[in-house]
Structure formats: C-alpha cells, structure tokens
Hints:
- The chain is mainly alpha-helical and about 80 residues long.
- The protein has one domain: Non-ribosomal Peptide Synthetase Peptidyl Carrier Protein, Chain A (Orthogonal Bundle), CATH 1.10.1200.10.
- Helices cover about 60% and strands about 0% of the residues.
- The chain is built from four helices and no strands.
- Helix 1 packs across helix 4.
Amino acid sequence: MFENAVLRLWSEILGVEVTSADQDFYDLGGQSLAMVQFVAMVESEFGVELPIEVLFAEGLTAAEAALAIEAGARA
Length: 75
C-alpha cells in the first residue's frame, strides 16, 4: 500500500527516478540527512512516526520502508 508513496518520496528527495521496491536507499545515493528528510515527509503525509534505527539499517529497500510505514500506521 505504501510502496508507491516511498518510491515517489525517494525520487523527490534523491533527485533520481526510483522505480522498484527492491531498490536500496543508500545504493541510490541516499545519505543520513536525506533519510531524516524522508522521515519528516512520512510523518507529515501519513502521521506515522518511523523508528530511526530501522531506517538507518544498511540495505534498506523501498519495500522495507513501506512495511515500516504500514506497521506505524497500525500502531
């Protein structure tokens, strides 16, 4: 449900087209400040507070980020 939103937000933040949920944020050129921006945008758009420690994990894919948003939305 949130995968398309993650792809859109990552594309906006990173300035590259993110087309697959299997793409890794850090492999796409993402850095910690960009991740903080992503967290703020998710909170603003969806009212979901994401756990930073999950998002700063090495190898974070868009699918994993979407699952974290979904879990936060249910909490």
